[in-house]
Amino acid sequence: MPTALHTALALAEAGVPPLPLRAGKVPFGNCRTCAKNVCGGRPNMKTPGPCTCPQPCHAWAAATTDPAVINSPTWRWAWRKAVAVAYHPGGAGLTVVDLDNAEAIAWACASLPATRIVRTTRGEHWLYQGVMQSANAVRPGVDLKSSMQYARWLGPGTGTPAELPDVVRALAVKKPSPVRPAAVTVPAPTGGGQCRHRTPAFLERGIAMAEQRITSATSGVHATVYRTFLAVLSTHGRCGCLTDAHVARLFAAAQAKGESPRHCTDAWTNARTTLGV
Fold first, then answer.
1. pTM
2. SS3 of the chain: helix, strand, coil, percent, to 5
3. Most buried residue, 22, 150, 211, 213, by most Cβ within 10 Å?
4. Tell me: the pLDDT tens digits for 31-72?
């Protein structure tokens, strides 16, 4: 069985930058020279760049294809202690879609183009040609490992690596956080705190109809959103039964039709001003 050093040298020759993993399958800790990153190396952070220290002390940034460095006396201690070999996918021009369970694999089979597959202990690594931002937990059981990240070397796998598809790149794009609409402040109801002419079912039906009216709009979305907000507020804006959850539903329907959070807020405010609520 090849040693970790032999595996690392073979990977380097193939253009794949390796690094050693210690017990727990994690990279070796910082050496004394680079304690607390005083050398400037910052792996897995926004400032990339390998450290100048000869020790393999900075995770992905320590990975190299230089056999002289890999086989140097200062690296040999790490290879002797290594329990596994990892590599920097981004340094090899690759992106690894790490599928951690059967459900994640099923999703990949249905959603991603065929590519090279490496079996793992719990799932599979799907390898694509291309470099992108790494990201964890982009879907249940799915991580993306490419730039500024490392993946365990488990063999060459089977199949031919396909070009990195847009569907994988899109997984790392953070969706904007939903905008929480401002709380609706309305005058206290006059009927002893009770909705004077509604039941909860009536209110629910009204909100559902408003959502449907916005969703069904094929033109004049701005005007439709405003008129819908106006109708909801004219019916329920003075009796105190509207909640943040109801308003959030209306805003979500409007944003699904292309309205920005700012437009939603403006339309809601203008409707309240018009009605004096």
1. 0.60
2. 40, 15, 45
3. 150
4. 666 666 566 554 444 444 556 666 667 778 788 999 998 988
